[in-house]
């Protein structure tokens, strides 16, 4: 009875997880869904092991094998163990992928937060971000142009180049 209650609760929580989608990152949602499906599968396997024990206790093993389609409790236990190992492996893979994404984002932030910039190039790819050019006409606007330059570079995370010979980027 406890196994059935656990199975129902895990199915209800999985349904709620699918309806609400509480995570911002897609990988977090995928990990939570995978974990919930594995929990449901573990409860189903525990129910099969329980039924195997009950049927084989009152009848012979051949009848239990014909009814449930498994030869022993060890087969189900091995499947449960393989599932647990696969969930841990997926957890490690998703953790490594998220660490890679965080490292890549920090590298981009570090690249565009420094004062020295790469010179402009003209072989831009379709997936790349494009540079923005600021223009100012008076010498008094140089401080404003530098402020806009720094602000846009930090917000857009792409190189921003000024078009005045008195400023330092060109």
* Total number of beta strands: 2
Percent of residues in helices: 55-70%
In the sheet with the most strands, the strands line up as 1-2
Unreliable stretches (pLDDT < 50, length at least 5) are: none
**Termini, distance in Å?**
75 Å
Structural class: mainly alpha
Transmembrane segments: 6-24, 31-52, 79-102
Keywords: Membrane, Transmembrane, Transmembrane helix
Description:
The protein has 170 residues and is mainly α. The chain has two domains: 2-112, no CATH class; 114-162, no CATH class. The protein is 68% helix and 4% strand. It contains five helices and two strands; from the N terminus they run ααααβαβ. The protein has helices at 2-20, 26-58, 61-68, 73-113, 142-156; strands spanning 132-134, 160-162. The chain has a two-stranded parallel ribbon with strand order 1-2. Helix 1 (2-20) runs antiparallel to helix 2 (26-58) and helix 2 packs antiparallel against helix 4. The longest helix is centred in the middle third of the chain and has 41 residues, at 73-113. The chain starts with a helix and ends in an 8-residue tail after the last strand. Keywords: Membrane, Transmembrane, Transmembrane helix. The chain crosses the membrane at residues 6-24, 31-52, 79-102.
